[in-house]
Amino acid sequence: MAAGVDAGKATESVRVVGITKRFPGVVANHDVSFAVTAGTIHAIVGENGAGKSTLMKILYGVQKPDEGQIEVNGKPVTLSTPADAIAQGIGMVFQHFQLADNLTVTENIVLGAEKLHGIGAAARAEILRISQAYGFGLDPDELVESLGVGERQRVEILKVLYRGARIIILDEPTAVLVPQEVDALFANLRELKAQGNTLLFISHKLDEVRAVADAITVIRRGTTVDTVTPASVTSRQLAELMVGSELPSPSTEESTVTDRVLLQLRDIEVLDAAGRPELSGIDLTLHAGEVLGIAGVEGNGQTELVEAIIGMRKASRGTVTLGAEDITTWSTGRRRELGIGVIPEDRHRHGLLLDSPLWENRILGHQTRPPSVRGPWIDRSGARADAARIIAEYDVRTPGIDTSARALSGGNQQKFIVGREMSGDPQLLIAAHPTRGVDVGAQAAIWDHIRAARRDGLAVLLISADLDELIGLSDSIKVILRGRFVGDFDPHTVTPEQLGSAMTGAGSD
Amino acid sequence: MRPNIKEGILRRLSKIAVVALIASMTLTGCGKDDNKASTGDGANASKDVCQSATGTGPKVGLAFDVGGAGDRSFNDSAIVGMQKAADDLGATCISATPGSATESDEDRAERLRTLADQGYNPVIGIGFIYSVAMNTVAAEFPETNFAVIDGFDPDTKPNANVAYLGFAEQQGSYLVGVAAALKTKSKTVGFVGGTRGDLIKKFEAGYTAGVKSVDKNIKVLVTYLTEDPNDGATGFQNPSGGKVAAEGQLDKGADVIYHASGKSGNGVFEAVTAAGDGKFAIGVDSDQYLTASADEQPHILTSMLKRVDVATFNMIKSVADGSPLTSYTTYDLAQDGVGYATSGGFVDDISAQLDEAAAKIKSGEIKVPDKP
Amino acid sequence: MAQRPTNLARRAGLGLIAPALALVIAAALSSLLLVSTGDDVGGFWTTLTTKPENRNIVNILNYGLVLYLSGIAAAIGFRMNLFNIGVEGQYRIGAFVAAVVAGEAWLPGKANIVLAVLAAMVAAGLWAGIAGLLRVTRGVSEVISTIMLNAIAGLLVGYFVQKVGVSTGVSRSTKAIPEESWVGGIKLFDGVPTQLFGLALLAPVVGVVYYVVLNKTRFGFNLRASGASETAAVASGVDVKRMIIVSMVFSGVIAGLIGMPTLFGSAHNYGSSFQTGIGFAGIAVALLGRNHPIGIAFAALVFSFLQDRAGLLNILAGISPEIVAVTQGIIVLAVVIAYEIVRRYRANLERAHVAQQVEEVRA
Questions:
Q1: Domain range summary for chain B, segments of one domain joined by +
Q2: Please, which residues bridge with residue A460 across strands?
Q3: Which residue in the set C232, C239, C355 is minimally distant from A25, CB to CB?
Q4: What residue segments make up the domains of chain A, in order of their start?
Q5: Would you give the DSSP letter of residue A219?
Q6: Domain A261-504, CATH 3.50.20.20 — does that match?
Q7: C-alpha distances out from residue A229 to A214, B116, C24, Å
Q8: Which residues does chain A have within 8 Å of residue C221's beta carbon, measured at their own beta carbons?
Q9: Separation CA B5–CA A410 (nearest Å)
Q10: Is C12's Cβ below 8 Å from some Cβ in A?
Q11: What is the per-residue pLDDT across A335-385, written as a single tens digit (0 to 9) for each?
Q12: What stretches of chain C show up as alpha helix (H) in DSSP?
């Protein structure tokens, strides 16, 4: 198709023609073609696993394409290493910041580019100049550890500009930001654009893409589907281009909240190693059939809250009650046995044995309960049968139960975890960022499962950074800030902006 | 996620690498061999004598402990005896050395067995470590004559074809103790032993007695390189350990240091040489002045001679003569089995006192203790 | 459909490629080394490839089985991501304690053996437990603590042999075990002076127990889960601290058995000629054997075979036997690299396979 390639424009910064990249047995990119007009913000959208990351790696010289051609500013180039890309004026801002906390802004930026302006006053002056030119407002001498997320991201962008990039690739830059920070980022991006830089913006948040991009290229299953302008499509149309089908949305049906209290936290306090409170004064009541959403900027105590409930962290004060049992002093194992299912926020670290086959992963967290064990023995056939059941019921796409968890895509891993955690009659389901890094298809399925759990009378604690997801699924929402609950909201009336204000502490106090 | 996975692999790999490193280090014998010593003339000497000898006399099988030839001390002394046998009796030989520190009595037995099997006779185990293995194998080859230097019979059943060749090391050590006492200016002398076991304690006991016989007030500093009697590597093949031990004693004021630590003694020489004029080391087993470097020679006062060469030669000769040695033989001062070296001439001025002490030991007037 | 069996076959083949690759690399590098030092490469290979005499076969089996115990002891820790470098110290403590108990002969005959073996297991287990305890309570890396405990074990045993031992010639050892408590050898060949140690048969038993416990029990699952991902294990309700201590102790308990075949089969006391270094060799064996009971058996035999042949090298070929230690070292390093390469290749293969299958499902 080679959609969206308008030939002959002299002002193209990047032009990609027929890029194909194969990994053993998989075609990650197939005949990818698009062109980016100089001085514009060009968005690349697609589901997780559609091939965006591979494409970006090719553009940044991390991987070499098997076929196809890349032109930068009208000239064909070969990008074998990131150094080649930098030499061509291409820079990349990674989703996960690559900054050293205990170094200053200047030191972080200069690191690895000492040849450009030295490491002294000249470097500092250059950094200050760039920062002022684009209105970044960064202090070159500040330690990175004292910077907020938005500022750190600006340091990353500055790092790229410092190295002379005029074409900047941003990989999911908004994933870690709250709405207000997103606005600030977009202001920066527009300023960058105004001064003649070209921006390649990768995302799957369609509203944001439409707000900021001048052109949008959609990738589906490794190939470019179309390039459109934001004015010509709605978010919904865009999403359908991405998924290739009708789109679900997170919304609950009528309330199923009962008055049976399942989980109750009273005055919970959790201290870190140094004795500083990470959670304090946490009170929470969760009923059967209720979904309670927890909103907050990451790192404000969500992780600790989950760990305190499942017993991975000991509360220094307060009580945890599940059903009729006071489980404050119980071990994680006993608590899980009592019926707590957990979809962990980091499924690779907390939810799976990546190198073990799926059927063994079925046993994880259920080591004391049938069908995976019989007394002190592993019930191999029981576990295998039940793993097969989960794969069928939860539409986990895998060749079989002997496949290792690592081989599955994020969405399929997550569906498997959901299926496993719903096994064995849980009373309480804790879902931390259940749809993060999951493709749209799996996202819809996971939402369905959460709704089903609620219908079945489970209590669900939903922690998410996706405010739409929270608003769509929850019966009530609490906002957590610096280890405390700072507000209760009714999802039927609240807007993402209100939540965002509460999350950053702007609205309350 | 990508960078995380990579980090994980890196961490895993580096942890595995540490383990692999440790494993391979221990497999190759801890890398403690000091090149200077092991590539020294001794190693070539054993090769030389066993390669060059072409006589028609006895075919001798020499079984060494880990490290083998090249210690310029105990093992090389045996080679000197072998060389003499080659010259005088037309003996030929082969030397066998373990490849790793991980050896059991079964491995040692197999070495002796292979030697006996190949027709070597006598088969001599250089070091008491062969005692147990010898006991097993001697019974399997009644026609072969065996000998163990410093050896003993581990059970009550006597072996008709094994000679246990022991030494009165305490007597020789007594004499070098007297020399040390007469030469010290700081009234502090040192002793560096390999492993703390009954064998090396004999050296210490004799040395201390000798020192005290001259002046009860002289302080004797005693250091063993390891308390672990199974750890011959740390005890006897550890020049860097010997150096550290000697440096410690020098710091405490010792100006004469006697070592009984095999190859580790090379480190003692190094430390004493570095400490400069007026500091002396006393060698052990061989006349170590002869194998020391030109730098070290001015610092080697004397050596306690343990005539492993004599014992080795006698054993070979007895086989050549058709009346092989068996059972226990103790080489003491009276039969020149132990003594002291005069190379370098540092003890010429005190030879009268030394000879007097020697005479008293021979006559039994002085009973030298063999336990500290 | 036809895809499946070939894929499986390929995966099984991959499992064998890594160790084979490592052995080939080690052989090539060793030959190269010999050539560069001007040694007799032909003699090296002739000695190494000559069929061992019957008595050597017995020796190889004896040492191989002892190494197997050591490999399993190390593997228990490895499976849980605990790098127990301390098998060395643990087995020496165990062997010493058993030698003392058996030498004292508080119980008659065979009961004495049982008591002594149990004492060895307990002593070695507790010794290993120290490292586990330090890790759990003070966060001390078990690599560091076990290395230190090895040194302490050697010194402690040395000290006590001096204290309580009896003098034998110029060295000391523990009291000899009374003859009624010896464990007789098993005759494999006629007319051969060496016999298989009776207690070496503990090795296959331990291998089976290791396999069953690790793969068939809840405990084994928890252990493997803790090793594969400590965080996931904690989240799933495994008390990882407890698991660390328990698996460390188990590792030590098996280590306690290492010295038993020799002690009761030939040495009959613990003295200065008692074999050391088996614990370190076990680490290499476990690495080479991929922590798998069969793989470890294979690795133990390879190492034992090389050790046996090494003894002949300077007698038959005039080559310094240290070359074999170098070969063993190269094998270990090569194996680590080869496994990692194969592991990555296999992971890619599987991922590709999944992608393919999913495509088929979608299509």
A1: 35-167, 169-305+342-363
A2: A291, A429
A3: C355
A4: 12-89+166-243, 99-154, 261-504
A5: E
A6: no
A7: 6, 93, 60
A8: 360, 363, 367, 378
A9: 14
A10: no
A11: 998 999 999 988 888 999 988 999 999 999 888 888 888 889 999 999 999
A12: 3-36, 41-49, 54-79, 87-104, 109-138, 142-164, 202-216, 218-228, 230-235, 240-257, 260-262, 278-288, 293-312, 322-362
pLDDT of the residue at A248: 54
Q: Which CATH number fits domain B35-167: 3.30.310.180, 1.10.3720.10, 3.40.720.10, 3.40.50.2300?
A: 3.40.50.2300
Cα of B14 to nearest chain A Cα, Å: 19
What would the pLDDT profile of A315-326 be if each residue is shown by its tens digit?
899 999 998 889
Say if strands A484-489 and C166-168 run parallel, antiparallel, or are unpaired: unpaired
Q: Is the CB of residue B16 less than 8 Å away from at least one CB of chain C? A: yes
Where are chain C's structural domains? 10-39+320-363, 54-319
Per-residue buried b or exposed e for B330-363, using 16+ beta carbons within 10 Å of the residue's own CB? ebbbeeebbbbbbbbebbeebeebbeebbeebee
| Cβ-based interface (< 8 Å): residues of A facing B | 53, 96, 98, 348, 437
Query: What does the longest C-alpha to C-alpha distance in chain A come to?
Result: 73
What value does the CA radius of gyration of chain A take, rounded to a whole number of Å? Answer: 24
Q: Is C157 close to B228, i.e. CB distance below 8 A?
A: yes
Nearest to A408 among C229, C349, C354 (CB): C354
- CA–CA separation, B110 and C312 (whole Å): 9
- Determine whether the interchain pair B228/C158 forms a contact, defined as Cβ–Cβ distance below 8 Å: yes
What CA–CA distance (Å, rounded) separates B229 from A303?
Answer: 54
- The distance from CA C193 to its chain's CA centroid, rounded to whole angstroms, is 26
Which residue out of C48, C171, C251, C304 would a mutagenesis test of the B interface target, given it has the greatest number of B Cβ atoms within 10 Å? C171
CATH code for residues A12-89+166-243:
3.40.50.300
The structure tokens listed for A420 are: 């496993």
Chain-chain contact of A364 with C232 (C-beta, under 8 angstroms): yes
Question: How close B276 comes to chain C (CA, Å)?
Answer: 34
pTM of the entire predicted model: 0.78
Please state which CATH class domain B169-305+342-363 belongs to: alpha beta
What is this model's ipTM? Answer: 0.85
Determine whether the interchain pair A437/B1 forms a contact, defined as Cβ–Cβ distance below 8 Å: yes
Condensed to tens digits (0 to 9), the pLDDT of residues C133-153 reads 999 998 899 999 999 999 999
Which chain B residue has its CA at the smallest distance from C322's CA? B99
d(Cα B134, Cα B58) in Å, to the nearest integer?
19
Instruction: Please give the Cα distance from A61 to A155 (Å, whole number).
Output: 22
The span from the first CA to the last CA of chain B, in angstroms, equals 66
* Contact C171/A at CB under 8 A: no
- By C-alpha distance, the chain B residue nearest A95 is B1
Tokens of B49: 């004598």
| Radius of gyration from C-alpha coordinates of chain C | 22
Q: Which residues of chain C have pLDDT under 50?
A: 1-5, 361-363
- DSSP for A302-361, please give it: HHHHHHHHHTSS--SEEEEEETTEE-TT--HHHHHHHHEEEE-SSIIIII--TTSBHHHH
Strands B188-195 and A261-271: unpaired
pLDDT for the residue numbered C323: 81
Tokens of C119: 């004492």
CB contact under 8 A, A333 and C215: no
* C202-211 residue pLDDT tens: 999 999 999 9
Name the residue in chain A with its Cα closest to that of B3: A96
B3 touches A: beta carbon within 8 Å: yes
| DSSP alpha helix (H) spans, A120-177 | 121-133, 149-162
Q: Does the domain formed by C54-319 have CATH 1.20.120?
A: no
- Please give the C-alpha separations between residue B297 and each of A324, A340, A403, B251, B343, in angstroms, as whole numbers: 88, 79, 71, 21, 9
